[in-house]
Write a structure and sequence with these properties.
242 residues; Deoxyribonuclease I, Chain A; six-stranded mixed beta sheet; globular
Length: 242
Amino acid sequence: MRVLSYNIHKGIGGRDRRYRLERIVRVIEEQDPDIVCLQEVDRHVARSHHDDQPSKLAEALGAAAHLYQLNVRLKDGGYGNLVLSRWPFRCHHHVSLRRKRRKPRGAQIAVVDSPEGPFHLVHWHLGLAERERHWQVRHLLDHSLFRESEHLPTLIVGDFNDWLNTLARGPFLRHGFVQVTAPRWRFRSFPAYWPVASLDKAFVRGAMDIRHAHIARSRLARDASDHLPLVVDFHLDRRHSH
């Protein structure tokens, strides 16, 4: 099974600054993921031609199920997080990660009904300040909506904005999570055209067998957004699953 996490920068290229949502679609199609987790997805915003990007992406990629979380509102629309799936969701929730006066942020929680059994997916785009990010992770991991499915194999992906990787040694370690995207130098994803920072990350807990993880570095991916996509291949370990 394959999950792709990608900050698509509203479909605007990191170098040419052109809006080309079809490039994003092609980058995703090249990787053929089962679950797609996208950050900075516009809906009805002038810079992206007032497109309903969640609907366009769901249709173009043939998603059987999708969830959109609008976090930042702009006039008639805004932008946020999108999950696309080949498989249905048993349940799903949206949790606010906004802290005080900072930019609104959110997490998407879903139990995915995969061919290998259910697993717990968390998708988010964390804040720019370190203290804010640590609060956001603690808030989510202690949240009742997260805890109701925490017995399942759990995968957390997204744009963590964690330049120094302090979350791995902090709240994730205390909650028993293992970082998939380590060592950092192998997972540099930003900026796309000359990546120096590992901002797009994945953590797992429970009966989840990670087979492979990589940053997709095609020429098209370097042009399509200001981030490169993270791809994680995994199976559920049925010997230990609940």
